[in-house]
UniProtKB/TrEMBL annotation, chains A, B, C, D:
It comes from Pogona vitticeps (central bearded dragon). Binds 2 magnesium ions per subunit. Belongs to the tRNA(His) guanylyltransferase family. This is tRNA(His) guanylyltransferase. InterPro entries: Thg1_C_dom, tRNAHis_GuaTrfase_cat, tRNAHis_GuaTrfase_Thg1, tRNAHis_GuaTrfase_Thg1_sf. Its EC number is 2.7.7.79.
Length: 269, 269, 269, 269
């Protein structure tokens, strides 16, 4: 068979292994989600169904793939952090990013109907992804802080913007103009004085995004046992400890989070 | 806002642009599709519903993304070829591969029910992908020939193997043993003399896989026009030429295919 | 011995193999050669000793390393082209560039005294280098054309500039101002009308730079032979054909050069 | 001028910036130094002139280039460590390695006559180089330990081997056979019991290699000053502190070295 004659083309594949001993971050973004959100009637500034579907898809990625120790999501983006010592698929860059985005994308469509009962999915959405390496724990924490700071900035803006549009009957252009050059304090002030909204009381999921980590959780189940020489079966409680993905909506910029969950950055994670 | 303090982490992103003037090939593979096929009752050796779903997903990738001039698929893999001069997303490697695999994965779930009416999708499947560059037209043709030769080798083997299992009541182990060391001619002979099967009459989609290319197609539609001073509307035929993805199940190893479709390799494609 | 404990650090070395079937170009540049030229009394606008030393060093690189089919140099830079099919050191990028620059640098110091008899070398000079891949023959020809066009532009400018400074007693600032915004034709005109210099009669090595290629050359040597039954030895001429590096100062932008030396781009070179 | 037409070839240069916040190590090796050593009459197992010339060349590299905080050499190899935060030439991989090897190679030839007065340099030697990144301080220390452990292993072997050849009149083949399968303790025992050599008394430069670091050194110079209203000039001592490259031949595997010179790994270095 002529196979051998063509097989030389395999040598054109580049070795794309990630530098060892670095945190491997895969970040994905929805493709054209501005239009996608409009076509599927996403609520503004935040659609909780859409956020929950993102979180559900991210949870699937964490459960299906190996070595992910933390994930962080907001809006239409999600970041997944593989542990420093991960040797999954020999640390090949392409494997990390394609497994993450394909699992996320198929999960997004698969779980759509669980969150959007009345809104059919009109077409299959796309996502892009990239891999970034961070050598030190501080670099990684700063990366995640960067994303959460971005969440805060965008959400504060969007909250004021859509409140102006929805409750003051400003056109989008007028609202945009109104907000030009305003600082965070100004925006808080507009919300409070004009709409009696205390931004700090807005839902944490909107202000902080979503953090996914692994936690040991006790599962209590009933188990039937048979005691020798006792004709009757009995039921006893059995407690099992299992690692489970848990969702948090908390600050990850300050030290408190990392002090509370030191195992995330530990080598054994 | 503390944004600027963290923004330095952006500098850790590597520039991963593909070398210009090379064919950019993205190949994707199903993750754990052996098990996936069993769990979803795929017919052996070939499940036409599964192949058609792969093709439908690949078609969506070609239509949604830019600059793909040809795609080739077989079994649970698909290769997409971006044109040499493509400058899509500045030729970033990560963009090419993540857009392809995410669009493919979401389409696979989205269109599942169109092909597997009686078989619900049990969980969202994953795919991996990679990018390979080919500098010359001959390298690219040899790459595609390599994949089609692989299709032939695997399909011939699988056809004999499953015929032995399904019609001779051999166990899989016995069938495997029977085929050990056999050449293509031996396998053809088993099929013909024992089961009266001429392998060359097997369906082309199984033997050759699927090729997707762009073709100009005439679309004839009726259009209502109004002629001035004539109170009645009239209907006329309007012919429009549009580029459409067409599916072929033909040989792409020989020269004939490339002579028939010279525009695929031309710079203007 | 504790060796094994540390040996894991080898895994941090990245595989940096060049894409197969591409021309591999290594270009080197003198580091801080403006200052180097001044300190070593280089003549302006061109110092023939310095150019010849560059050429001698480049010749050594071609002779010592493998698979270089053409080299082109001008001013304090030199480009070396490894053939497409080269598998020297498994095409490792780092090997290509470090062998070229180190051999060039050591040769530059080694041969200095052959060209600068009265001018001692004051300190060891540095060079930097890079690797660039070109997939097609046209890309490679355009690369070399780019460097020769650069040579022409710079040499025309420098010729007028230094003629103004040396023969019109303009200060460098005045000469620079005089030339601001002038086109090639203007510069030719200044040289001709003010200094009676026809730029086209300037030495080819200055206007075109230096091309190094391999040529078969006949070497005629005398050899003593002894004829049986004849007591006396006789001397006969023996002609041997050997590949030798030859230096040319010719145009490589037009087609003529490539038509005259088709073996440079041929796969067998 | 046709320049613009060709300038597109610049886009084929890849961006090869090193990941930030990692130690950048450039290691160089002599090319064909086995033969080079023989042709230049290097003493076996160690030629002090050759080692000193290597060290002199490495010192020049440290002084001429920027951001090198430590270098380590043995035999015909040398490693240079650029500080984590270095932004020299935007951290381009090619710049790091080509500047190091070219400066080393030209220095080697330039300073040759200072160490090999009676032995002319027969031809310009070559070196190859590579860049390796190390994310953590421990990784870097382990890298340097790996090289020093290698020095120890090779030097112990070579010391016994050449003692057997030079003082027992064994042929190289016989000496090699004698040493096959011996451990470090066996080799020490051969040296001590047969030749009365205590390996631990061998020169440190042979057993440990050479470490180059920056140290603040006081330079005391005399300066003439003139005191107002005093007609006579006076000479006073002036002490200046300057950073100088110093050579050490000490253990760098244990903690002591790093505790003694904490500034090497500090961010401010």
């Amino acid at each position: 068979m002529a196979k051998s004659k063509f097989e030389y083309v395999r040598d054109f594949e580049a070795d794309d292994r990630c530098l060892p001993n670095c945190w491997v971050v895969v970040r994905l973004d929805g493709r054209g989600f501005h239009r996608f959100a409009e076509q599927h009637g996403f609520k503004k500034p935040n659609d909780d169904r859409a956020l929950q579907l993102m979180n559900r898809s991210a949870q699937t990625v964490m459960e299906e793939l190996e070595d992910i120790v933390i994930a962080y999501g907001q809006s239409d983006e999600f970041s997944f952090v593989f542990k420093k010592k991960s040797n999954w698929f020999k640390r090949r860059t392409s494997k990390f990013m394609t497994h993450v985005v394909s699992q996320f994308a198929s999960s997004y469509v698969f779980y759509w109907k669980d969150y959007f009962q009345d809104q059919p999915l009109l077409y299959p959405p796309g996502f892009d992804g990239r891999v970034v390496l961070y050598p030190s724990d501080q670099n990684l924490k700063d990366y995640l802080s960067w994303r959460q700071a971005d969440c805060h900035i965008n959400n504060l803006y969007n909250t004021v913007f859509w409140t102006l549009v929805q409750r003051s009957s400003l056109t989008p252009e007028q609202a945009q103009k109104r907000l030009q050059g305003t600082l965070a304090g100004d925006k808080n002030e507009i919300l409070f004085s004009e709409f009696n909204i205390n931004y700090n009381n807005e839902p944490l999921i909107h202000r902080k995004g979503t953090v996914l980590i692994w936690q040991k959780v006790n599962h209590v189940t009933m188990k039937r046992i048979k005691i020798p020489k006792d004709p009757a079966e009995k039921e006893v409680e059995v407690t099992r400890t299992r690692s489970t993905v848990v969702l948090l909506h908390c600050d990850i910029i300050g030290d408190q989070f990392w002090e509370q969950y030191p195992e995330i950055l530990s080598d054994d994670s």
